[in-house]
Write a structure and sequence with these properties.
The protein has 91 residues and is an all-alpha fold. Helices cover 31% and strands 0% of the residues.
Length: 91
C-alpha cells in the first residue's frame, strides 16, 4: 500500500477486494470477470496449547457469529462465494 500511495509511476494494482478499504479514494475498482476471480478462505484453528482455553473457544464462537459476519462483510470478505467450477455453493 505504501508503494501505491507514494509511487506515481504505478497505474494499476491487482489486489484482494478487501484491500480497497485501505486505498480510500486513491484507486478505482474495476471488477475482474467471474471466471478469472480467485477466492480465498479465512481459516481458523486452535493452537494445541489453547484447544481447551475458554477465551479461545469464545473467539472461535464469535468468528462464527452474525456479528462477526457483518464486520467481515464491511471490509469485503464474504461468508460464501460462488464456486468457479459450477458446483452449488451456499449463498
Amino acid at each position: 500500500m505504501r508503494k501505491w500511495k507514494s509511487d506515481d509511476s504505478l497505474d494499476a494494482l491487482i489486489i484482494w477486494n478487501h484491500w480497497i478499504e485501505n486505498l480510500g479514494n486513491t484507486a478505482t475498482v474495476i471488477p475482474v470477470e467471474e471466471k478469472y476471480r480467485i477466492y480465498r478462505p479465512v481459516s481458523i484453528a486452535y493452537m494445541p496449547s489453547s484447544v481447551n482455553d475458554k477465551k479461545s473457544k469464545a473467539f472461535v464462537h464469535f468468528l462464527s457469529s452474525e456479528e462477526s459476519e457483518s464486520i467481515f462483510n464491511e471490509y469485503g470478505w464474504k461468508k460464501y462465494w460462488p464456486m468457479i467450477d459450477g458446483l452449488n455453493a451456499k449463498k
